[in-house]
């Protein structure tokens, strides 16, 4: 399958940036992907969002609930793609972005909590995905940050569902509802999936 370059929150609700102060919008002329602050000058996003792009083609908007205005719009100094990123099956879909200048943290800008090396996440654990992607509802604005709650899905079960696309790899984690209706969609790619403790569980691919 080809990666979706503009993922979206389906079946979620509006939140304020203070509810997810790690959330950023990655932009060219407009929003293309999400991402998460992991320090005062580094962001994690999806490698397919930055694939084939130069740092000077991208900017980051942060500290705002609206992806098209307010907050700060910052330049990127460097893109560090995962060295084993595979565009054909989207394996190792991670990329790091270094901001031109470190930012100051406040209630609208904070680093996301990172998991410990041996931290485990269980099937069914509730997680939260946020972003500015499509809502698939023409009455809902995609300019305002939204969030959806989704449970983690058993890896084997997920692998079966994705078998016609080549399955899932060990670097992937699945979340969502079998009946559908709530999920990330185009435009949410690169954005965070955190658990109830605010720990980064995955990056939307």
TrEMBL record:
Asked whether the keyword Disulfide bond is assigned, the reply is yes
Which controlled-vocabulary keywords does the entry list?
Disulfide bond, Hydrolase, Protease, Secreted, Serine protease, Signal, Zymogen
Peptidase S1 domain sequence ranges:
9-205
Q: Which Pfam family, an example, fits this chain?
A: Trypsin
- Could you name the domain of life of the organism this protein comes from? Eukaryota
Q: Could you give one GO CC term from the UniProt record? A: extracellular region
A Gene Ontology BP annotation from the UniProt entry = proteolysis
SMART domains (alphabetical): Tryp_SPc
**Mind telling me which InterPro entries this protein's record contains?**
Peptidase_S1_PA, Peptidase_S1_PA_chymotrypsin, Peptidase_S1A, Trypsin_dom, TRYPSIN_HIS, TRYPSIN_SER
Its main subcellular localisation, reduced to a broad class, is: secreted
Q: Where in the cell is it found?
A: Secreted, Extracellular space
Keyword Metal-binding assigned to the entry: answer is no
UniProt GO MF annotations: serine-type endopeptidase activity
Q: Can you state which reaction this protein catalyses?
A: Preferential cleavage: Arg-|-Xaa, Lys-|-Xaa
Q: Which family does it belong to?
A: Belongs to the peptidase S1 family.
- Report what the protein is called: Female reproductive tract protease GLEANR_2574
